[in-house]
Here is the input.
Amino acid sequence: MKPDPSSSQTTEHKPWHALVGSKVEEILATSVHGLDTAEVRARLERYGPNALDEAPPPSPLAILLHQFRSPLIYILLIAAVVTLALGEYVDSGVIAAVLALNAVIGFVQEYRAEHSVRALMQLVSPRARVIRGGREREIESRDLVPGDLVLLESGVRVPADLRLISTTALLIDESLLTGESLPVAKKTIALEAVESALGDRTNMAYAGSIVASGRGRGYVVATGSNTELGTIAEHVRGKERADTPLQARMSRFAGIVGIVVGIGAVGVFALGLARGESATEMFMVAVAMAVAVVPEGLPVVFTITLALGVRRMAGRNAIIRRLPAVETLGSTTIIGSDKTGTLTENRMTVQKIWAGGKIFSLVDGAAGENAMLLEQHKGAVLAEHRPLYFTLLTGVLTNEADVSLGAQGYEIRGDPTEAALLIAAATLGLEPSEIRSGHSVDAEIPFEPERQYSASFRSSGDDDHYLFVKGAPERLLSMCDSLLTEQGAMPLDREAILAASQTLASEGLRVLAMAYRRLSHPPAASDEAPAPEQLTFLGLQGSMDPPRQGVREAIAGCQEAGIRVIMITGDHAVTAQAIGSEIGIAANDAPVLTGVELARLDNEELRRRVQQTSIYARVAPEHKLRVVEALQSHGEVVAVTGDGVNDAPALKAAAIGIAMGKSGTDVAREASDMVLTDDNFVSIYAAVEEGRVTFDNLRKVTFFLISTGAAALAAILASLFLGWPLPFLPAQLLWLNLVTNGLQDVALAFEPGEPGVLKKPPRRPQEGIISRLLWERTAVAGVIMAVGTLYLFWWELESTGNLGRAQTVALTTMVVFQMFHVGNCRSETRSIFVVNPFSNPFLFLATGAAFLVHVSALYAPWTQFILRVEPIEPGVWFRIILVAASILAAMELHKLLPRRK
Here is the structure.
């Protein structure tokens, strides 16, 4: 039968993990001698290279066009076309310049972010060792085909999906695929469970995983896009990316602006016709009014504000790939975090040791009432407590790992759990290399899953011979008949030891037992190693992947900010619950929903369960995606973290996907909106703060521009209704919006965060960029500024009869109104008189610069010609400043009312 493996779980027969080795060979038409050259060539032609279809980076043109995907941009494009058609070339040119500036700023930022992420991408296993034609050779991994026999050894990355046929103490780290922190012991026997989870298929090795220790051989059953890794990658690339909350808010806001502009333009046109004006003239007036109301500078300031947020986040270890994602974390209501490497250090560490009936702790936070903290007493304890000494000694001598102290901490080679035993001994003063050199190896029994222990026969000098054994507590207890205490060997109390083991395991620790026996002579080379028996039990070592420093505080901060943190991991339920309890995600007795349980739930039941469940364990990629979608169905804004291929679908479906820059996979980074350069959850908490500050500044800028636009609209409508001339010319309106506003609104983007920004609850997804309170304040501010401007316009027109002079006064009054009003916009709730005027020096300078630019325009001949303005006297300036200052009193009163409530 010719092979036709369309995936690693082909439908023509049982899954590969449920087949015996001979059946695998039959289906793949291969053997232990490998494939010959002709067959390899034919299969390579049939199945293609063993490589994922790499998603090309977005082209510069695509990034540029992406800058125009905004409803507000669409309104400006329409305004530019209309003004161009009407021959208003200055107006259309200014709008075009705004659109170009916005596109350039956004393009530069997103292009840089994409370049930064691509720099993090790493090549996947470029070489593979195979048997072909009965000979071992090394080839490019992309040349692998189904049926190839691949050789695995410690440290290599698995190049394709393999059905293992031979293993020797083989442990494979599958964390980037399944999320499980500990390496999986592999074996070759067929599994009875046809529907077993990916992490439970112990006779399979999947592309992208890494060999932690041992050796193995396996037949290639899937390559390229047909591997489990490739299947997930294709699924991710075919899924549409969800809009961010900011994009949704921008769409709603642009809709409101469009409706207001449309109604206002129709109203102006109708009023003019009712007064007997010509249709052509009133159409021009309506267009001028529309140009005045649409905040042309808003897209530019939005882009600048988001770019500033990007820069601040980059300084706090977060690379933003898409500008709208800057604000999304500020709106996030739930963070679904992976455990391994994000909440934890991704490094196994011995936490507690039970020896001679006592508990010793190596970690301050793990010390309980009955635990002695070894860091404080290690010298005295090791000298006085022989059971502890021998427990540590056994952990070193029954160990195939190796560690060395480098500039970045311990560098580990081999099984992480065994490396933890070496580091524990070294921390307490027992240098592993010295101990090993002082105890020569006579014989060893390697660890096998069926055996549940490993053993080492050692000699120290001519007369001291020992057998050291390490393994599962229950297995070692069956070999022991005594317990080492401080008083010497005592009768074995199995129940007490099992209870101690259970206590450590209940805390999420992986427990290993240690035992030894003194021998009269080393085993002879011709003798079989005797089965361990009559051993003396020494102690237990409990290790775990500990939480990162600062994670507990960051989670508490998120909860104070109204953000719920949940854990979604491929690790075991007990471990997940213990870590979740320690870092404050859930209580000790909080329910844990496993992938197997989740698969049995329908969507409606899952929607109910996700509201109470904060820890999800042993989840597959499709489970994580279902959890995210169930949370989103409740209106939650979900941020998801992840580093593995298994995380990619959920990363893309979430409002913001957060990938790991150091340990993450290329697939996860491609699916993400944000990449953490330090893989640390604490950086997410910092990014939440920056996201909220960014949104607050966006809101301040929008309020400032909309309220001044509302004032211009109200002034134009009122003048038409009263039968007055227009208080502003179209060119003056553009000057107002783009030059004087344009300096101060950009400066608002540099506002520092307000006190308590992380103590407020997340914004409701339905809440717009402008809140109901600010819409009310916009109306009040618009009326005050319109009334004040029209009052001085009328005064000047009545006094001088000079329309050009009256329009100059109206324009200048609005400019001075903006000078005062920008201070009101610095805080939604705090008084302008308690905000430090120098905390944003850029705003202070921009306000002064805007005023000086306008004053210069009143006196420079060329700007007088373009804007149709003229100089004004000191007495007029006094009236303007006096009237414009009224906006301060009005806004202070409006802020005072909510504070009193």
Q: What stands out?
A: Residues 349-544 form a domain with the Calcium-transporting ATPase, cytoplasmic domain N fold (CATH 3.40.1110.10). The two ends are 80 Å apart (CA to CA). The longest strand covers residues 161-173.
